[in-house]
Amino acid sequence: DVKVTQSSRYLVKRTGEKVFLECVQDMDHENMFWYRQDPGLGLRLIYFSYDVKMKEKGDIPEGYSVSREKKERFSLILESASTNQTSMYLCASSLSPGRVEQFFGPGTRLTVL
Amino acid sequence: AQSVTQLGSHVSVSEGALVLLRCNYSSSVPPYLFWYVQYPNQGLQLLLKYTTGATLVKGINGFEAEFKKSETSFHLTKPSAHMSDAAEYFCAVSPYGNNRLAFGKGNQVVVIP
């Protein structure tokens, strides 16, 4: 089975802090994704990566950046956290182009005070 | 660009009754279609998917969905609701050959004893 892990289940940070969310998948998937989930809004794509060192903006990239130095690891970075970034963050991966089924991690619930 | 519509953010169903969750999509090319389920404080888990072939798709936990191209729909059903079906359900669509998934806003299902 594919396993996608996220570094923290719950995280509390202060406004202005730099925040790193880490995601690791163990099945050699090419594609990795970061979403945020908010009540009534569903899942919104922040960034995705289809290869090491490659990234593409999703629908809501403002205030976020990403890093993919190794195939199995995809990091989401909040350069200066703000209260409106309080949310559930979900990481996902998929095998390759054309194999679009995504496998999700357990999520990180981030609270910015 | 593709979009996904799920009507009714909250759906109440009596234990033993039919579960019906509606999903309509817009896509300019033949899509791949998915239903995911999310239990409280967890990530998303794949319920079922349609890629090609038979339009009636069976998934886990007794759920099934039917792809109707003429109606651009992919409704999810389960003949008899169980208390354990209480969760949030998301419909997602990906046009053929596209890495990304577009998600609906989700249906929160409440099962009444």
Task: Give a concise summary.
With 113 residues, chain A is mainly beta. Helix content of chain A is 0%, strand content 56%. In chain A, strands 2, 4, 5, 6, 9, 10 and 11 form a seven-stranded mixed sheet that branches. A four-stranded antiparallel sheet of chain A has the order 1-3-8-7, with no helix packed on it.
Outline the structure in words:
- The complex is a heterodimer of chains A (113) and B (113).
- The radius of gyration of chain A is 13 Å and the shape is globular.
- With 113 residues, chain A is mostly beta strands.
- Chain A contains no helices and eleven strands.
- The model of chain A has no long low-confidence stretch (mean pLDDT 93).
- Chain B has 113 residues and is mostly beta strands.
- Helix content of chain B is 0%, strand content 53%.
- In chain B, strands 2, 5, 6, 10, 11 and 12 form a six-stranded mixed sheet that branches.
- Chains A and B meet through strand 5, strand 9 and strand 10 of A and strand 5 and strand 6 of B.
Structural key phrases:
heterodimer, A: 113 residues, mainly beta, 7-stranded mixed sheet, 4-stranded antiparallel sheet, 11 strands, B: 113 residues, 53% strand
Q: What's the number of extended β-strand segments of chain A?
A: 11
Query: Which consecutive residue ranges of chain B, at least 5 long each, have pLDDT under 50?
Result: none
- Beta strand count of chain B: 12
Relative helix content of chain A: under 10%
As a percent range, the share of strand residues of chain A is over 45%
Gross morphology of chain B: globular
Which two chains form the greatest contact, residue counts included?
A-B, 25 and 22 residues
Radius of gyration of chain A: 13 Å
Number of helices in the DSSP assignment of chain A: 0
Q: Give a short account of the largest sheet of chain B.
A: 6 strands, mixed
